[in-house]
TrEMBL record:
GO terms for molecular function: electron transfer activity; heme binding; iron ion binding. InterPro entries: Cyt_c-like_dom, Cyt_c-like_dom_sf, Cytochrome_c4-like, Cytochrome_c_Oxidase_Subunit. Transmembrane segments: none annotated. SUPFAM superfamilies: Cytochrome c. Binds 2 heme c groups covalently per subunit. The keyword Heme applies. Residues 1-20 form the signal peptide. Residues 11-95, 112-202 form the Cytochrome c domain. Heme c 1 binds at C29, C32, H33, M72. This is Cytochrome c4. The keyword Heme applies. GO terms for cellular component: periplasmic space. Heme c 2 binds at C133, C136, H137, M179.
Length: 204
């Protein structure tokens, strides 16, 4: 803990007052998720601005093996209840840019959706019982409440890895197993397409 306190203090000095409120328990997290909370491709997802309740739930999923990751599971296990709360609330407080005028389901005509990723995002594939992503994740994938995280602007490799994790059963714990049910119906090409689509959504 002394090392975490020292690292948190050093970051507060080197990155300015914006991070002065960072709790010591979050110091280890910024090595991958960055002090901005925006992560980086092929390293860690953007978690800035996500609801604290969602982030806390994910840490607990890592603790109880509902989410499997060789890096995140030991990191999560190092946090007690107070650490989960402090870390989640701090990342939730960081700014997150979102689409200024996100499209709702139905805003785009089906004929205009020519790319497979965008088709799945806004239309789904009801012949295969696949709902549109924005039905739950909100217009443009901005996220809804404490249950459905934002997808807009998220790193493509992360989105793809999580859909594959739901397929493989190495991620669970969502409401009614919804994502596992959906992910198992997607082909590998569809997973790549929809991940690339949401990563490309303009958030500035």
């Amino acid at each position: 803990m002394k090392k975490l306190v020292f690292l948190a203090s050093a970051l507060a000095v080197t990155t300015g007052s914006a991070y002065a409120d960072m709790p010591p328990q979050a110091a280890a997290c910024v090595a991958c998720h960055q002090a901005s909370g925006l992560g980086a491709p092929h390293l860690a997802p953007a978690i800035a601005g996500m609801p604290a309740a969602y982030l806390a739930a994910q840490l607990k999923h890592f603790q109880n093996n509902e989410r499997q990751n060789p890096i995140m599971q030991p990191m999560a296990m190092a946090l007690d209840e107070a650490g989960i709360k402090a870390t989640s609330e701090w990342f939730a407080s960081l700014p997150l840019e979102q689409p200024k005028n996100p499209d709702f389901r139905g805003d785009k005509s089906p004929a205009s959706l020519t790319e497979r990723g965008e088709q799945l995002a806004y239309l789904g594939d009801w012949q295969r019982n696949i709902p549109s992503c924005v039905s739950c994740h909100g217009p443009g994938g901005v996220g809804v409440g404490d249950t459905f995280p934002h997808l807009a602007g998220q790193h493509a490799d992360y989105l793809e890895s999580q859909l594959k994790a739901w397929q493989a059963g190495t991620r669970s714990g969502d409401s009614h197993g919804l994502m596992g049910h959906i992910a198992k119906k997607l082909t590998a090409d569809e997973i790549t397409a929809v991940a690339n689509y949401f990563a490309s959504v303009e958030v500035k």
